[in-house]
Amino acid sequence: MRYLPSSPSEDQALLATIGVARAEDLLAGIPEGLRLHRALDLPTQCSEQEVTWDFMDLAQRNQRFCAQFLGAGAYDHFVPAAVDALVGRQEWLTAYTPYQPEISQGTLQHIFEYQTQVCDLTGLEVSNASLYDGGTACVEAALMAVRVAKKRKTLLVSRGIHPFYRQILATSFAPHEDLKVVEVALRDGVTDPADLQAKLNGDVAAVLLGYPNFLGCVEDLTALATPIHAAGALVVSVTQEALAFGWLEAPGKVGADFACGEAMSLGNRPSFGGPYLGFIAVKDAFKRELPGRIVGQTKDLDGRTGYVLTLTAREQHIRRDKATSNICSNQGLVALRANIFLQLAGPEGMKGLAEQNAAKAQYLRQRLLELPDMEAVPEQPFFNEFVLRYKGDMAALQAACLEESLLPGLDLGRFYPEYAGCILWCATELHSRRMIESLVETLARVPATV
Amino acid sequence: MRYLPSSPSEDQALLATIGVARAEDLLAGIPEGLRLHRALDLPTQCSEQEVTWDFMDLAQRNQRFCAQFLGAGAYDHFVPAAVDALVGRQEWLTAYTPYQPEISQGTLQHIFEYQTQVCDLTGLEVSNASLYDGGTACVEAALMAVRVAKKRKTLLVSRGIHPFYRQILATSFAPHEDLKVVEVALRDGVTDPADLQAKLNGDVAAVLLGYPNFLGCVEDLTALATPIHAAGALVVSVTQEALAFGWLEAPGKVGADFACGEAMSLGNRPSFGGPYLGFIAVKDAFKRELPGRIVGQTKDLDGRTGYVLTLTAREQHIRRDKATSNICSNQGLVALRANIFLQLAGPEGMKGLAEQNAAKAQYLRQRLLELPDMEAVPEQPFFNEFVLRYKGDMAALQAACLEESLLPGLDLGRFYPEYAGCILWCATELHSRRMIESLVETLARVPATV
Amino acid sequence: MFLRQRETLSFDRSVPGKRGMDLPKLDVPAARDTRPAHLKRGGFAALPELSEVEVIRHFTRLSKWNYGLEDGMYPLGSCTMKHNPRVNEKVAALAGFTDSHPMAPDALVQGNLELIYTLQEWLKEITGLPGVTLQPSAGANGEMTGIMLIRAYHLAKGSHRRVILIPDSGHGTNPASAAMAGFEVVELPSRPDGTISFEDVTDPVNGRVRKGLQTLVSELGTEIAGAMITNPNTTGVFEFRFKEISDLLHSVGALVYMDGANMNALVGVARPGDFGVDVMHLNLHKSFSTPHGGGGPGAGPVCCIQAMIPFLPVPVVVRATEKVGEGEVARHSYHWDWNQPQSIGKVHTFYGNFGVLVRALAYCFSHGSDGLREATLRAIVNANYVRARLKHAFALHIESPSLHEVVFSDSNQARHGVHTLDIAKRLIDHGYHPPTIYFPLIVPGALMIEPTESEGKDELDAYCDALLEIAREVEENPDALHQAPTQAPLRRMDETTAARKPVLRWAKA
Amino acid sequence: MFLRQRETLSFDRSVPGKRGMDLPKLDVPAARDTRPAHLKRGGFAALPELSEVEVIRHFTRLSKWNYGLEDGMYPLGSCTMKHNPRVNEKVAALAGFTDSHPMAPDALVQGNLELIYTLQEWLKEITGLPGVTLQPSAGANGEMTGIMLIRAYHLAKGSHRRVILIPDSGHGTNPASAAMAGFEVVELPSRPDGTISFEDVTDPVNGRVRKGLQTLVSELGTEIAGAMITNPNTTGVFEFRFKEISDLLHSVGALVYMDGANMNALVGVARPGDFGVDVMHLNLHKSFSTPHGGGGPGAGPVCCIQAMIPFLPVPVVVRATEKVGEGEVARHSYHWDWNQPQSIGKVHTFYGNFGVLVRALAYCFSHGSDGLREATLRAIVNANYVRARLKHAFALHIESPSLHEVVFSDSNQARHGVHTLDIAKRLIDHGYHPPTIYFPLIVPGALMIEPTESEGKDELDAYCDALLEIAREVEENPDALHQAPTQAPLRRMDETTAARKPVLRWAKA
Ligand SMILES: Cc1ncc(COP(=O)(O)O)c(C=O)c1O
Ligand SMILES: Cc1ncc(COP(=O)(O)O)c(C=O)c1O
Predict the structure, then answer these.
(1) DSSP state string for B80-112
(2) How many CB pairs under 8 A join B and C?
(3) Does the structure's ipTM exceed the value 0.95?
(4) Ligand 1, closest atom to CA C230?
(5) Collapsing DSSP states into helix, strand and coil, what is residue A191?
């Protein structure tokens, strides 16, 4: 087997040094009755060629598209080749958590840079080495909020938050019987201020708001933050499309106390939903309540600048059941992709890409609205996603798109019954005008509703 | 422009230090009249995304095949993922010729290992850092032969040598009016001993023999070497499919004085013909006549083992017009691929792969011969290529194969009128039985000849 | 090697106007600015302005300050730093996988669904447990999921249980996960040999009595929802009374969770489902060779008994088989089933770290049933070889037979004033990555070495030689060790100041 | 950085039975052995037996003994070590290119043919020459091809010419290539400023008179087939009398070959076809950024005037355009034309280093006409900045204006007994790759620095600072420099013994 450095002669030498005759003798510690006395009922080993073929075959069984107009928390953006090339270096790829700072300065300095950039994007002061994904980042932010709010036990969650994020929140809060999750309704695609006001009270620890929200609408954080802060609660901004930070003001500058969400857009591909990149950033006051690993700058014995894992007293390996979170392995390499991506993009790249996303989405919306079956819903400012009502037959639309290898937007009815018949469309810098025209032409051919 | 580290402020600082106002002022050394006073008539710069799309588009305009049964000097073999991953390391990819041994030991040691392996595969004693490809390796071997043979001016070349190699030989020998290239005929697919005997004389410096030859046939080097050596000429073995060294005895052990050819099969893909890997190996006596770079083992001032470019007195940068060759840049990274491939394969891998190639080719031949329109030509031992006569319509066969995304073997008529209507077939470890059956089924459906 | 200067932060080298990315020409009208003025993005303070090659050099140079698996042996105990095959990276990067959208209709992602289904089948057979979810992103996430399943299982039976038992040798994530899943953690004491104590244990230092498993089960009874047991435990020893433990817990209706971080010792050799485990997680980034990425991503699938399947996270992948005639090959199709009324819900936004799952399945296919077992045996041989070579120099705090890893104590060296940290740092000077240190907590000054099956005798010997050389140095010149490392790019770091006056991001000077 | 021991030869670590590659299951009958017994492969003596991870570590460790472009500035003069963009690697690795077979029918490789055609069009416009072949594998191969074209051109006119003129500053490949193409080389002397001397030159040392261009042309006349001129020449200076030179040569019917190795100084700024060049090669691995790969592969396309096109190597790519209606987009198809009766034949087995051509075209597309010119100007600015910063410390043997590279002499340092080699080796201690040294031969102790356009001010300054520091060290402690390098993995190597008693391969001890 190519991965095992076995050879008859050396194997014998190892066993002789150990003092056993056969490797199986070393299983003595496992009671006979608890062992498996047969081979696993699985195929036997394969050459690299066979394995490669098997996976090419599987990959080919996924439909390929000319263009995907679907976002909904997973975005198609261009990934510079340098990102893939750099993360392929074994020094990044195969190392683990930088427990030994003297030989892990690469990873540590990268995390420090990444934390800095997350703070910059969000306008907040402290971040960490990453969280699993957007949904679990929401959970960590929510749990942190109830932790710092001490006696307050209610969490308000805007219905504009990604439905899957809300589902994870529900799953994670369920075991904590003292905690309560309450939904705040939408009006015209954004959080309803009246409903928010009605639900705010002295038990509310925090309010989670989408920025932009799942429907692509830009919530006016500033306006919403006023009553929330007045009620003594925290504003948690949740962003599922991190590229929006090139278009929208940093949440920390418009009222958010915490910002969290999904940053897969920075240097990653849709990849059937993972690995993605959960991020979190908070005001300085909360830093000792953050979940996960944090890197800090310090000096070595000779006074040279270097980086170490720090504030570890928060973490599970020290605090065990009292830790701020259970997270251990995180999304290190995905954070590295984001770091490389952001350094390549720079401020001009971030803003420019964001502007192109906005331009493409606006153009797509305008062209779609020229179709007789497409209808506007009350418009809000949006970034690269927006909702339109479709009066035609959704199945026919799906079928027509597939025929042309186009993946249409999300049929919202499944998640928002009130938006049944509506589609959430997305366009990014990867959508050429030609692709957009081809979508519009395809849709124009869908048989009209009877 | 992303590749240029330009910034208005820094650019100004550079110019100020130089003492000019504008970069254009530095063109003063180029007479005004010789400069270009317009922009190049070419498209302007593109983003990485646009470039990527352009090339994906071009790549898609090549037909993809389920299986290619075409060899003829360019072979489809499996390339382990480790090969691509390792050569992608910038330390290998971007470095140049190891002029400074103290910071080029990686490249130097690799070349030393590569040379060792070429010697092992060929059964000869000295090799070099690589040559451009199989055809130019033939030229270098031939020129070297006339160099060492001093007064002898004729080169005999078997008609079994790859027709393109022979064409390059002709091109390269043409300017040397004192030198003569004479072809030796084939009989039953191998070099005709009678014709060889007839053409051997005191002016013959060397005889080039395919091993195996272009028609896939294994030449009996031992038998052919006897008259050649008796005539005082050198035997040059030419191999276009280096994997054959896992099946056939090393040429150096069966009579060859030089071995040369193409080693693209070791860790490379067909890639429309390049970059490939020319190799050469010779007996020790000829080492100071070798073309190209050679690495030798030595010690540093502290007695530590290390590697350097050596025997440089042969080379163009020292000997100029008296050099053994003009070659400077070679195929370094391709040689690295071969080195990694060979170390992964090891002796078992080389032999095992070669056996599988032989098995697949034999099976393919057997199955094809079951078709009524396929006919044997006089059989010789072969490795992974063989010739069959096709009585059907060649164009119809081509069309039927394409329909099934199969690339058939080479129509030999173009290169060997005497083999008009014959096809050179190839099968390797990459040809599954299913692919072979699918080819046979496809051919069975070709309308029979009228 | 050629970079003896430090690579500064990229922010410090940013120059206005430089750029490392160009944008495509905009082929539609420019965006209208529809943002409320106050929501319009202002500037960026910490995105550097650099050319592409400058960014590439930055990350290339930084990478050289790291030690990776392909530099040499990296025997972090409990982390299973085995070879990360490149073919796994290659197949995971196939565009058919990376371009596929998690919200695409099932019919368009049959390859992905089949892959997930197939990996689940492998994990079922490997663990002997019939239920699986691949959703958890890492071990800790799997633990929390598993404990939530335990909670849901009991709740479905109308039973509110509040306690999870966890041995003192357990990993920190165990109690933290149990707490996140809403449970109270009660610690199980270890016996001197590192296994769980059935009897009460009196602390030799403070005389405090710690209740053993037997006492806890009889006292807490049906309060106990389950126990989280690492097996082999964190000293690399198999809980030889596992069956008795699980029987005892089952007797009060409690479930047994197994932390499968050490599954590299068991694959193909023993199956948790066969020895009493009800639910467990696997670390695909450990036992199944997916790369650790400087901290992640990993994947922590959870496997469980039949009775717990209804509670698994949604969606679950389902296979439908088309009826075919005799002798024909069956045609399968796959879909997500979201309709699981008893499900705990979701623990990942979509379906888990899919790219990691691809790699793990490639690992499975490459090894096959025979290779998986061979790997396990080799991992055990390697650990025992290290044990045999080092045991005269380093103290084996626990003498029980080691499986895939071996834990030494620094007690021999401590007599000379040299501690585990010093030994670890000196290993760096020898060109190696240190083992896991100071874990498990039950071994004083633990040095936990897990060589994995990937190491050949050469590399094992070189590593052992380095440690033996250090042991000699301890006797001859112990003080020098406090200075280690001296050959690394940096000397020891001031971690105290780092924590007291934390500098957690760069800010313009 | 972590590998302070040497990485031994893999042969020395081979262990019988280990394997790094598994074979697929054979799905056809095993091969019958049809080989004559004496032609059956015997054993292998030097293929190591190692596991996959051992091979990967070997090449990873070895790589760390190399210095690459992404480690930092690599200003090898004449080699144009510019940034090698990763997108070029990515597109060159597209399966549509790498899987395509060179013998496939033209209709099936239209993408490749269009790519080749398009790159040719770019190179024509860049050089101002209407003929191109992409077949040559590297610069030297291009030179030989070009000289063969010159030969064919004259022969077709019935003229047998035997001489090629080459300046003494020319690269060694120039005379070697001319010789391989069957010509006699006559050397042209340089003037003190490094440019070609029209007049005879008297060697100040031995009083020998070397004939200048004028004399040679008038004496040799129609014996002269052509001249090979590097422009800008190897001192980085433009042959300002180029037009006169070419006019003079043309006056006797001779052709002008330009060695385009230094094209990085001219792209978008001046075109050889416009200033009198008849035929030239380009080094795509220099001016067009394809990676150098530790020695290659490169590509050395040859461009030529109309009159030489019939002699270009076969096959040539031809574009056919389908007739379309007005306003429609023209549809092109491409094919290989093998029917070129006057062609010199072939210089590469197939069509050249195709993979390199893909990368070069990606470089062209990325830069565009504007970026190409900007890159040239930046390369010139960078070289002149280095010149400005260093000229007070290092002697400018030639004062003429530099274009893309600058050549210093070690004459200032030689007075202290320190020579170019010492300076180069000390640069290694500063963490940098030395420049090209001792070339061109006409500059005593040449240090030839070509920073390229890829370097920013930071990196240029750090490099200059290192050289200035060395210049100071020369004054203060010259002897220490003879010991350099001291920080590299090895000290200076015994090259004499290496050449006298060559050990050119490993053999079992
Ligand atoms: C025994 C044990 N349990 C649990 C974990 C947590 O796994 P992860 O880091 O994947 O969350 C680890 C890993 O560090 C471990 O070693
Ligand atoms: C001036 C000059 N001419 C020719 C060459 C030869 O080019 P190549 O190495 O590509 O054969 C070189 C490169 O080293 C060179 O610098």
Answers:
(1) -HHHHHHHTSHHHHT--S--SGGGBHHHHHHHH
(2) 63
(3) yes
(4) 1
(5) strand
